[in-house]
Amino acid sequence: MKPLLKAFLFLFIIINIGCENDSNSILIDESDMLIGYWINPVYSDSGTTFERANRFKDDGYGVAFLTENISLERSSGWCGTPPLIFADFQGKWKKNDSIITITIDNGLGGVMDNHWKIKTLDEKHLVIERMP
């Protein structure tokens, strides 16, 4: 009986390992690749590159384009003096061809418009150019 129990236990473990959900997989909206969380900005002369993620990092800048044209910006605000405390600011976004307009309530009673031109957009990266 013990060998049969060991075989059953071994089979049970193998099946559960094989069926485990991958919590690190990122859901991508195929109808609009822009929708999602974008973090880890890398700035260069040619633009800013973001990486797609499941959620924001606790201690870093990021932007999210959600359904129904809701946007979130995780930012430390206008003051860059350490210690940085990040907060989420909600707003709206709209896309016209390759131009994204993001309107964010900055939490200080003001609204800020950002205009970005999408240079590259795929499953893993968003590269934008900031416009005046």
Would you write up a description of this structure?
The protein has 132 residues and is mainly beta. Helices cover 13% and strands 46% of the residues. The protein contains one helix and eight strands; from the N terminus they run H-E-E-E-E-E-E-E-E. Strands 1-2-8-7-6-5-4-3 form an eight-stranded antiparallel beta barrel. A hairpin with a 3-residue loop joins strand 7 and strand 8. The longest helix is centred in the N-terminal third of the chain and has 17 residues. The chain starts with a helix and ends with a strand.
From the alpha carbons, calculate the radius of gyration and give it in angstroms: 21 Å
Structural class: mainly beta
Q: N-to-C terminal Cα separation, in Å?
A: 76 Å
Low-confidence stretches: none
Shape: globular
Characterize the largest beta sheet: strand count, sense, and whether it forms a barrel.
8 strands, antiparallel, barrel
Overall pLDDT metric:
85
Count of separate DSSP helical elements: 1
- In which order are the strands of the major sheet placed? 1-2-8-7-6-5-4-3
Secondary-structure element pattern, one letter each: HEEEEEEEE
Q: Note the quaternary state here.
A: single chain
Give the strand tally: 8
The proportion of residues in beta strands is over 45%
Determine the fraction of residues in helical runs and give it as a percent range.
10-25%
